Amino acid sequence: RNAPVTVAVTGGAGQIAYGLLFRIASGAMLGADTPVRLRLLEIPAAVGSLEGVAMELEDGAFPLLESIDISDDPWVGFAGANIAVLVGARPRTAGMERSDLLAANGTIFTEQGAAINASAADDVKVLVVGNPANTNAFIAMSNAPDVPAERFTAMTRLDHNRAIAQLAKKTGAPAADIARIAIWGNHSATQFPDLAHATIDGRPALDRIDDPAWLTDDFIPTVQQRGTAIIQARGASSAASAASAALDHIHDWVRGTAEGDWVSMAVPSDGSYGVPEGLISSFPVTCANGTYTIVPDLPLDDFARSRIEATVAELIQERDAVIDLGFAKRA
Ligand code: NAI
After folding, report:
1. What is the mean predicted confidence (pLDDT) over 38-66?
2. Which of 85, 93, 167, 327 meets the CB 3.0–4.6 Å disulfide criterion with 322?
């Protein structure tokens, strides 16, 4: 057995957390050899509901679950956290301007970044799920000067998994045979899901697709709009699949990616592929020994370059807006 790992999760009474916490407790995130201590955060109005979730977690009698602590104070909630999954965010409500949304989340992620800086474990790894995820992660990172910047990441794994699913459906190949999918840029409708390097059973995936229009007219918009399609069909936003992707993100970051494959994570850019340094943008990455590396030197054609440029331009705009609002400083 490994030493217990302390996992803080915000938005603990929400939809995604309801799909996430039980699987963390069962060992699906960190492995069946790793006990977990959960620290759950909510806003004061939702603490009662969170107590109910904690009762259900107790009733799971999970052998790996050592403790459950609840708080509405980030300075308490993140104490000792080795992993912090920031799910809670302020959703856009009717009549809310984009600047109001950025400001409401700016306040939340400024405080959470500062609290993580002050109280989390030295090895803390942060995953931001709450939207706008990339920019919320940028704000938290900017307010945690003592935590290495590369520990702040945002989730594009759901988009990555959706891309695998669409390719599997199109070709009839099992998801397990598909590798080297890449999501570039923002977790938004401008993201670029890229099949140029994807393989099925080790051979180029694009060789299995005989209609070239499928890529631009079907695959890319389907992955970009999948969140909206699920809201329309289900009457609520994707929650279980988002929880599953969050588990995958942390699992692979901590335990490593499969030989020969990579995953997509939004991480602070090191300047690779022309993405400005420090911008939290999605890249294909490999993980080993608890760290990730952006996959270097992939050849990009003009189509890929222009798609990446467009989604990165949106991220730059979001970054500049939160800098103007005072939530982060220019690098
Ligand atoms: P939800 O509304 O069911 O739950 C969110 C919870 O967060 C609520 O219980 C709320 O009280 C709590 N919360 C809000 N502010 C908080 C704060 N400052 N501290 C602690 N808790 C706080 O929403 P759901 O469905 O769980 O989604 C959560 C977020 O994840 C949303 O922002 C959503 O847009 C985003 N999302 C991101 C995806 C991604 O791929 N990156 C995919 C799906 C959803």
Report:
1. 98
2. 327
Preceding peptide of 284 cis, ω within 30°: no
**CB of 243 closer than 6 angstroms to any ligand 1 atom:** no
Residue 331 clears pLDDT 70, i.e. is over it = no
Say how many Å lie between the CA of residue 77 and the centre of ligand 1.
16
Ligand 1: distance of its center to the CA of 16 in Å?
7
Instruction: Name which of 159, 175, 145 is nearest 281 in CA terms.
Output: 159
DSSP-derived pairing of the beta strands 152-154 and 178-179: unpaired
Closest atom of ligand 1 to CA, residue 158? 40
13 labeled part of a ligand binding site: yes
- pLDDT tens per residue across span 198-241: 999 999 999 999 888 999 999 999 999 999 999 999 999 999 99
- Structure confidence by residue, pLDDT tens digits, 115-171: 999 999 999 999 999 999 999 999 999 999 999 999 999 999 999 999 999 999 999
Query: Would you call the peptide bond into 132 cis, given omega within 30 degrees of 0 as the criterion?
Result: yes
Please tell me whether 11 is known to bind a ligand.
Answer: yes
The 199-200 sheet, strands edge to edge: 178-179, 199-200, 203-204
Q: What is the whole-number distance in angstroms between the Cα of residue 15 and the centre of ligand 1? A: 8
Query: Which residue type is seen at 239?
Result: A
Which residue type does 285 have?
A: V
The ligand 1 atom at the shortest distance from the C-alpha of residue 18 is: 26
Residue 14 annotated as lining a ligand binding site: yes
